[in-house]
């Protein structure tokens, strides 16, 4: 077309109705307004039917189109198309069938005859735009009005097309500014949802956004998280693959590879793609492409006898009968994919089978179909025109469940219903129930009526467009299965409703063998095998997250599912079992009376108590002997009593801690040892005073009599009693199940928790103070006469006492669990035995084995020498 720069941009102007309504938009012949001038008559083929209203239709009757070559020196050659598509021809004839059906329907558009202008888009952007512009008026000059712009009045009220997204985008963007509706039956790209770019675009097919969501749910349902993708360079494939990869990744999936089939792939490129498919570890491949774009690749794979790939098909080829030929059975059997719901349109099969070729102009498309179907040439005697389509099975005649054809059918009826409302066909007036077809209107007015169309068709489906110009997203899940005749059939095995709640969208039949080519298990596609229970995934550096190593769960953690990415930490007081698959209640551990260590400590404790008791009996039996009287018998018996308490208090540390044992154990230990050390302190003072009593003028022994000794013991013991009482009442220790030791043992240590740790160290500190005083005084009396040697034994006992308790502190702090209790018991017993053996055993030795030394003279011999 030629456009004068000085005129408004207007072309393809025409009224919607033919004569006598053609006068709408005419201007006086003498008008000086500029005109659109057609340079040359179009030679493009078209299937045409005159009518009051003519609907445009575009179908990819050929699926291969050569790219145009422009030299800008000569007239461009007509684009050549090849590869006749029988299925696309059925779509076209479905539009013809729907128009004729509406024309026979007296209740829909009464008095208005629908016509059509159908052309071949060749599934190519350039060809699609070319056939769009050929819809203009066939007259050489079209008169214009000053208020009009080009395409404001279009040759047709609406256009039905296209099958692919790229041509659809180009045409929709062209028609959008002129408000000419474009209703697509197969363009599913999500990009077409943008109403800023495509304001007049509508479709009877759901957006790929819903298909992608469904495909991701389908793939993840079978545990396929390692897949490959194949696409082409068109918008449908690019947007679909990108959306699938993004959403699939969000669900934890990985795409190992993406292979692209170019428009004009060479043999070398096809072989390279085939090589990648054969070497890949991904056994599930998602394909967004049309059947014509896949023929060469599938032919190469079939030639190589490639099997074991689970193909996931987009709706563009999932019901492509051409790919279901025997050549591809071994390759494509078991294919899964999404398709639009299929119906059986009454009368369509008979209509399609009655198509006949003709040499008349306008029948070129039918003749092409006939030649492709029967392998003959219409112009020569090879084709008689009497060949019977009933005896030929092809994708053209297979109308048991039509899907894309049904989308075409709905598009035609949607336009008819919008026209019916817009032309006031139901009004009561002079028209008497006929449409007001003489009214003048613009495309923008009709577009608004088409957007709000809402009707229920004969299949009880509510047909309408949402705010984005799209229908309800409903899909069938199709599986390619062989029937009894060894032919591939497209079997519905599930459904997907994109408008349903999230967890109710995907529905799959229970028979799992449907998906697996008759096998009893679902095919596997994985970079790494799922980690078994008891382990977790550890991603390999630099590789996709689906490629990982399996590491066992740490102690105290479990994973009870296959393929766990993280191990779950067991609750407090629970522990992982040996297999790390479940948490079991932790075994409570404490120093029991029945443990080996507990039995040994109890035996040592009882031995010390018995030995102390025996010594007490011996001292009581010989209480009037000089050695007992010289060592202050009353303090000795009190010391023996305190040693018994020291031995017995260790028993409180053994056994399961309870409310009363936790309060009693440290208090009993602290008071018993302070009483013991108080007695030793008094005995040491008595020894020193007794030695100084032999010095003339000394009155020490008279000032430190029995009463003073008792008072000193009471005064030195009272602070410890007060400290223990305040500790027990103010911040008493309590039983505590300590889970901190689970990390290494899996056992719960039951211990006494001390909410006020300084209390224990104050208790030990006071004991240490008394022990230091005893050691100091005993050390001062180390040079007393040999026969008066108790100070020397007290010194030895205090040295043992200090050695034990100095080593106790680091051992106690560093010992885990019940070992700390054992360390404290050992310290109690060791220091008690040290006091008992160093102080009383030498005296018992003299009393029992050398009674001749147990005389007053023997005790004071060296002192008085």
TrEMBL record:
Membrane topology type: Multi-pass membrane protein
Location relative to the cell: Cell membrane
Transmembrane segments: 597-619, 635-655, 667-691, 711-730, 760-781, 793-813, 825-849
InterPro entries to which the protein is assigned, alphabetical: ANF_lig-bd_rcpt (IPR001828), GPCR_3 (IPR000337), GPCR_3_9-Cys_dom (IPR011500), GPCR_3_9-Cys_sf (IPR038550), GPCR_3_C (IPR017978), GPCR_3_Ca_sens_rcpt-rel (IPR000068), GPCR_3_CS (IPR017979), GPCR_3_vmron_rcpt_2 (IPR004073)
Keyword tags: Cell membrane, G-protein coupled receptor, Glycoprotein, Membrane, Receptor, Signal, Transducer, Transmembrane, Transmembrane helix
Gene Ontology terms: cellular component: plasma membrane
Domain G-protein coupled receptors family 3 profile per the UniProt entry, residue ranges: 597-863
GO molecular function: G protein-coupled receptor activity
Name of this protein: G-protein coupled receptors family 3 profile domain-containing protein
Provenance organism: Astatotilapia calliptera (Eastern happy)
The organism's taxonomic lineage, starting at the top: Eukaryota, Metazoa, Chordata, Craniata, Vertebrata
